[in-house]
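Hi W.,

Here's what went into the run:
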Amino acid sequence: MSGPVKTAVVVGRGTTPWLTALALRRAFGAGGLSVRVVETGPPTPGLSHAGVPALGNLHQLLGLSEAEVARRCGAVPSLGQRFAGFAGDGTAFLHPYDTHGQSIDYVDFTHHWVLARSRGLQAALEDFSLGAAAAKQGRIVEGDDPGRLSVPGVGLHVDATAYAALLRHHALAAGVAVEQGAVTQIDRTDDLIAAVVLETGTRVAGDLFIDAGDGALIGQMPGAGFESWRDWLPFDRVLPLAGRRLSPAPAFAHIEAVDGGWIGLYPLLDRTAGLAVYDSRTTDAQAMLHRAEAVSALGWRAGEPLALSPGVQTRPWIGNCVAVGETAVALDPSDAGPLYSLQAAISHLVTLFPVDAAGGPEAGAYNAAVRAHAASLRDFQAMHYRLARRAGAPWEAVRAVEPPADLAAKLRLFAARGVVPAREDEAFQAANWAACMIGHGLIPNAHDPLAEGVAEAEQIQVFQTLLRRIAVEVGQMRPLEARLAALAPRPAPAAPAPLRFT
Amino acid sequence: MEANTPLDIVIVGGGTAGWMVATALVSGLRPHQVRVRLVESDEIATVGVGEATIPAMRDYNRFVGIDEVEMLRATNGTFKLGIEFLDWGFKGSNYHHPFGVHGQSIGGAGFHHQWNRARLAGHAFDIEDFSYAIAASRADRFEFPNPNPEAIDSTYSYAYHFDASLYAKFLRKVAESRGLKRTEGKVVDVTLDGASGDVASITLASGEVVKGDFFVDCTGFRGLLIGQTLNSPFEDWTHWLPCDRAWAVPCARAGRFTPFTRSTAREAGWQWRIPLQHRTGNGYVYSSAHISDDEAAAVLLANLDGEALDDPRPIKFKAGRRTASWTRNVMAAGLSSGFLEPLESTSIYLIQIAVMNLLKLFPGKRVEPALVEDFNRRVDMEYDRVRDFLILHYHANTRTDGTLWKQCREMPIPDSLREKLELFRHRGHAPNYRDGLFAMPSWISVLLGQGVTPQGYDPMADNAPLAQTLAELERQRAAITRRVPAMPSHAEFIDRHCAIPARAAAEAMA
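Here's what came out:
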């Protein structure tokens, strides 16, 4: 079986297999790789995806234009995430996909803000972020204007079914083959899968098998294991919701902590997608539905609750079987984590695509890289729970658990000196961490002493200039609604109609 | 906010480390934040041979606000585009580790993958022909990189060779002009605070007691504060890097005036050659288990370009680092924090890392443990990564002379390096991490140079037709060949840009 990989078989349903298959075909198709998708079922209805700005880079590589994603699947751009209810005192903050202010004389703006705050400054950190200001005013960032204060990232919210259909359409056009049917048998010798057999009797053979589904492939490989992160990510149910469209549509996701869990609101073109994420030991779907209505009265309808078991495959790549997506890394749906993790796995798989079908050192490198990225996403998600100040279960319980060592060190150092000790493979940048930690009320006890290199009067002037500049630049941006109107949906004739609750 | 009185910092020891730390502290901080005092003894000599640096040093100079021309004039400095390695890997080998990339990516695949693909298809190109920095080095030419990123002569960076003791003197002037207080004196005692166990003060031979809130140990190998006083353990890496001694000697400038450092592997170690404006620095780094001191000195003296200008000076060391180079209220910088032989010119970089991280994690009167923890994490990572890169030079060899090379070839290496070697051998996958040394182009040049040849390449390379790859290889090589002859020679460039005045040169020779 030694030799190059000629056929990659991707098994799963929905977005995960199609994004993976399209990426592999685009990366290696010209060199002769054939990609076959085994579609084990239709996508789970009623879901939406949240994507961080990095998703746009992947779309570019895959040949998906922003306009196409907007028109074909009603995607709505997002400049960040608003967190409410976590402090329990009615306050909220915005985590923009952007930096804050400008570093002054080598010193990050956050330190200047901490120093200014100790001198009586009232403005919030997010007031100094172009992306946050634009988001709060319903504007949208378009184009790369190098004259801007910063480079706000643009993520997106998209209907999961329509997105999967768009990816499927492109994958098929790019020459990806498809078989439909559940896998009933796996033909494997030691750690090499030769073929999967479907319920239809069809045998799909290949050199590399990608588990982009429910873990049926990776789970039966010798040496497979699962490490649970339930201690730090305490929620075990995700209830998909659909509500009326918000008008005007916000340019951000809204995450609101409630009793028993949190409610997420994700603006789409035709509706508001919602998620109720909760702990089934302390509450239930019905109660969460009511809480969603209390958060925002959008006439929510609920789908079936999905089980969630956060954690990671100890070895997501074994032999010739590679897990990507939720099978490899199961995360909370917060922070656009799941799609981000899938993108990272695909990117590592492309970088380490095996040169020999019989195996090699790629698996070890992939496992280390995917796990490191996943752990950093987990820490980011766990940070919200750790810093939340809400009363009641499960909020109090999760605060009582010792955080993962890296996260604990991050929180300690940030509290002491406002420094984010970024590690290799970090999913979110220092600015994202700072926005959230400060947003949740963790204000550093001390600033970088170098910040004092700027005199107080000069600092005040710099701050005022920044605020004026942000106001002017946001004023020049188009309202999000104007952009959405310009990119009215044009469903592709070939794509199947998106599933809806109605 | 913390107490409003400035933090009293006492730097113990001058030398390159002491003065680099001092200058950065007084340049980055204001008088109401720190009072910096440096205590050094004229009795304790520093090792004043030529020293080579890496491009990161320019960040340090920029940070403290040093004028490049002024600095080069004051230190007899020259330019450096990389290191030439002779006889490393195998006898007769010759490769450069340039401060620059090899080629541009083709068809979405990294250049060295396309180069390897062509090689495996029977089209052998010398990968060094695709490095602008190497082409310039071979021709002994230098000029500043073109700021236009599209230009072929933008694809490299540069560093310096200089006299490190003159650099320390130069920094001393800068630091003193910015308010640093220097005290001459030998430390005879260290006093700990009875309650906290922190260092409270040092006592000088004059009887003066110098108190401080925070101490920086720049006392060299002995680590007066960090080791002798606070007992921070030293992690010994001799089993990976067995060289433990060196002879250093300057010689008259002769032969090529190279814009690069040369490192020649010898039976029991390696010899450096560092061209300065007025003379050439040389040294033989060796393993005392494999050659006697006398023999080593003889080998060095027999292999100089020109007349030796001094007696060779012996240096003893041990590879390794402190497990915690910041302990309590003491940070070690330079040799007191660890030692890695100068094979990749990292000594000054490691001092720079220490002081820049200290500034990033600057303590108050009471040292917050979170700062110490993160400082040591960062410094450890830097040391570990440089260590792996150095071990690679020794380990990947097929030399048949000398037991040192056999021993290094057969020794167990750190897992972190073993994994990198496996991936490169298997498919040319080179390390590509975000923090610390070395970047991917450096790994590629040294891995290939040491004779680690990849059996495969990134499958993405196959997306471009082979003919396209071959044509692009020819085009890239020609672009370099065309441009390099237009550069001034290294000597011309220095004459024009930063030559030391003739009288100073004569004095420096004397």
